[in-house]
Amino acid sequence: xxxxxxxxxxxxxxxxxxxxxxxxxxxxxxxxxxxxxxxxxxxxxxxxxxxxxxxxxxxxxxxxxxxxxxxxxxxxxxxxxxxxxxxxxxxxxxxxxxxxxxxxxxxxxxxxxxxxxxxxxxxxxxxxxxxxxxxxxxxxxxxxxxxxxxxxxxxxxxxxxxxxxxxxxxxxxxxxxxxxxxxxxxxxxxxxxxxxxxxxxxxxxxxxxxxxxxxxxxxxxxxxxxxxxxxxxxxxxxxxxxxxxxxxxxxxxxxxxxxxxxxxxxxxxxxxxxxxxxxxxxxxxxxxxxxxxxxxxxxxxxxxxxxxxxxxxxxxxxxxxxxxxxxxxxx
Length: 331
Ligand SMILES: [Fe+2]
Hints:
ten-stranded antiparallel beta sheet, globular, 14 strands, binds fe (ii) ion, single chain, Jelly Rolls, alpha+beta, 10 helices
């Protein structure tokens, strides 16, 4: 069951200042989409049939693949550098230095991450229909290396959204270290090695993992990317070994198949405090539930018994229910 994701909001949340002067995104000049060098399936990671059946894509990770032309890379770099002073640093075990809400700050990045060409390409790679994330603030992050380059760029973690890609926006030949790596194993396996639970893998872990289970992605140049089902793939960016400019873009995507459980960590995100995020979350759950309710309104079998009807209604409204429960907890 697929449903078109919500349109981009017609207003920008208070707190974001759009760039006054930036390139205009042109897919014909800025994109250079090429097939991934390699695809890892969820089965390759050791996930069992129950996990694979619960997600609309059998793909865990794919790449590297070229996504942007040289001209596109120059434009992305100009935008990222113009937004560099807006970055903030995550507190706690995660050490990432990032710019959030970049689609509200940059029309170029909004048009890049909402490009139908990119969504169609990634849908083809994933084997399921993907769309720019229904939470606009998650449609792209810009990640920078910390000012103190001896610190990790981002420790081992999983993402709070289902699908994303990591685009190397700066030239990877200009620095040492700063490698994108992922753990080729299940969340249960990762959690046991890190002495935690799968539900806490969003929080960032400094420990080293067995090298034979770690894949290191060598991006051939700026403009290359790695796609991942980030909520099922533990990943990190290792620390730089030399000072250098390392910039990555992380655009987020959502499955159009709303019949599957939502991998978006709605409860966690409700505590982030970014401008407009609570309303974005409300729109996200309204979209998912509306799509399921529309189907029920049209197709609920008339001979269903009471138990089946209650189960169907609860399933259709579960997304709203869990956000309301989370928001009321703060009152
Ligand atoms: Fe991540």
